[in-house]
Amino acid sequence: MEKNSVIAVFDVGKTNKKLFLFDRHYKIVYEKSARFLETTDEDGFPCENLDSLRLSVFDSLDEVSRKTDFDIKAINFSTYGASFVYLDEKGDTVTPLYNYLKPYPEDIQREFYRRYGGEERFASQTASPVLGSLNVGMQLYRIKREQPERFKRIKAALHLPQYMSYLISGRLYSDITSIGCHTNLWDFEANDYHPWVENEGILDKLAPIVPSDMVYSSQLPDITALVGVGLHDSSASLIPYLVGFNQPFVLISTGTWSISLNPFNTTRLTELELKSDCLSYIQYQGTPVKASRLFAGHEHEKQVERIANYFNQATSKYRNMIFDPSILKLDNRRELRKSFSDQELGVFASDVEAYHYLILHLVNEQKRSTELIIKGSDVKRIFVDGGFSKNSIYMNLLAAAFPDIEVFAASMAQATAIGTALSIHHSWNSDPIPNDLIELKFYSPSIVL
């Protein structure tokens, strides 16, 4: 029986760790999911269990390699960012995988920015707000200050995607999608590492940068597949859209955070944009993507619970609520507080009306956030994926908020994993990339906001 040629993609989130096998048409032919108990670092702060993650990679590859119906041609990885794995001379880990949510010491942070030009200037150069441990380069700076002996032992600091690739290829390398995403390592003005990286002796500990579409041979005797270098998940999720669409677009990726991504805006971040939670990162082809973020999914969840409790309803009622434009007509518009969280729910005639106004508030905030990264580019389309793409009230109001731009709900199974596979398409797949990877639903403006 002829084997099915596939690519294996490890998609590692903070909570779920998944392995997918995609065939040559990028259809999922195998899927496995795992969750690991967290461990703690030396301060008792929760962190990823690296041993469990490492063993799961080997066990999962061993399992799928023994399946007689698959021929694994390539392997690639995408993971969450802001995470370094520190290796010593023998390839053993030197520290835990520190959690990017771990509070950063204020005295070390003040010292750093005082030494390197101040927060505003430094944030402008590195295209990122001041985010503490989320600026992953600051984790290395902290180790040098607090744990100098451990710092000396570090031979290589690998971003998490490249560590996973290293487990199979045995090679040390860095990738620009991780380096260029709010790390404090990359100087966007000079298009090189920021001078502080060399000044502090950190450059010597960073592996050489290789192209994001590079592949290497496996060091494992039973694995003959080519090995990709791995990608930051935010960059990977954008790849199917970059491959599929040529006209300038913005992708609003919705979940706990609603993140607006504009790969067609090359203007420098302004002070206002940085203060408004905007940043730039570098996508897999090496060009910058301007991004803004909004805590919209989290706020939606909180307020839905508040509405449901007040009106004695189940929260599930609002999952597929139909849009009723008559509720929000201009001649029927209510004067409400600027923040929905401060809004008294008693002013609404029903929970349906309250929910419509909640979404209106969120869309108004989304418009302000997205406009920050549209400015300076000729965007023709907005694609929305994730949870809000399935919300008809949200999508209709978003279309009304951007009447001069085409607004689409985008549906795609496992965009991050498929993007990770597409990044090395040429290495393992001789078929053309399918043109039907993304399902689109158009929303026309049906109400004046």
From TrEMBL:
Keywords: Kinase, Transferase. Gene3D superfamilies: 3.30.420.40. Pfam families: FGGY_C_2, FGGY_N. It comes from the Bacteria. Residues 247-426 form the Carbohydrate kinase FGGY C-terminal domain. Residues 7-228 form the Carbohydrate kinase FGGY N-terminal domain. InterPro entries: ATPase_NBD, FGGY_C_2, FGGY_Carb_Kinase, FGGY_N. GO terms for molecular function: kinase activity. Belongs to the FGGY kinase family. This is FGGY family carbohydrate kinase. It comes from Albibacterium profundi.
